[in-house]
Amino acid sequence: MASSHTSARRGRSGRRVLFTVVAASGVALSPLPALAAPETPETSQEAAALIAERGHDLEVVTEELHAASDQLTAQQAAATKAAAELKAAEAAVVEARDHVREVARSAFTGEQLTSLQAMLTSESAEQMIERMGTLDSIAGHNNEILGDAQEATVVADEAKAAAEKAAADAKALVDEVAARQADLNTQIAEYQAEYDRLSAEERERARVLAEQHAAAVAAAAAERNASQSASRADRPSASSSSSSSSSSSSSSAAAPAASTPVVAGSGAAATAVNVAMAQRGKPYVWGATGPGSYDCSGLVKYAYAAAGVNLPRSSSQQATVGRAVSRSELQPGDIIAFYSPVSHVGIYIGNGQMVHAPTSGDVVKVASIDVMGSITAMRRVG
Fold this sequence. Notes:
Distance between the termini: 50 Å
Low-confidence stretches: 1-34, 108-116, 237-262
CATH class of the largest domain: Mainly Alpha
Radius of gyration: 37 Å
Helix content: 55-70%
Order of helices and strands: HHHHHHHHEEEEEE
CATH topology of the largest domain: Helix Hairpins
Strand order of the largest sheet: 1-6-2-3-4-5
Shape: elongated
Strand content: 5-15%
Number of helices: 8
Mean pLDDT: 74
Number of strands: 6
Largest sheet: 6 strands, antiparallel
């Protein structure tokens, strides 16, 4: 009996702990930045700037969606566990009732003794008091067993309700962030269409202006050189075109070559660097984790997964793994996080450079660690 009593109390304590944990881990629906009303660009340059701006907004929202999805998965698992706990508690109540009946049946060599029977069949006052005390002890013990089991059921039922609410809140958060993501995708598509339209119009305007300018130059040359042939009148234009082409070639030739990154030599960091570097040229796609395309945190997770290290999905969570390092301590393989709150990450490869998936329309590539602006966190995994 004592062991059953102890077991019941332990079960009740464990379920209380579960309820506390589930209730404390309720989802906080943190407010997200409000999206500005779409602007109407008047030039392709303005449209390109809006695409870049909304692209960064989308990267932030996508990273929040990763975190919200992870939270939803955890809350759904907690709800499933709580449902199992409730089922076990309900089974424990049935078992406790059966146990009480068995105890009552077996008391005093199988005879079902009542208080009245104890008084009538006792041969002395002492025997009656002893029998009455025994009956009281049995009743008290039985009531305690039933009470513990029923209390455990109540606690488990509350835990299940709390876990289901937490999962519902997490699902609502995922839906909210996903709606913002869809809105941003729509805005970007609209700006891209505007960019294409404006760019085409600007190219047409530029062509017309160039033709008008060429006609004016030709007319002026013809007026000054009325005695010369049309071929001589056209020569300055050809010379100008040749000069422009030469200047363009010279400018292209003068472009500085990218510095050679230093890669790690061994271990998980080395594997992560090498795997990430092997993804260069693959397109950035929001929410992608490879191997054909990536977003920023997807690339970091993929590279470290190849090294046997399971990182969180979102950039904000990746910015908390491992231990913090300073800029002077950076080593190839360290994770570098940007913006506040964190919404972009890359993998350091040495010489002040990182490999990262920048944004939509771009590809995985090597860049300076200062290209994204101020660094929020630098973390060493392992």
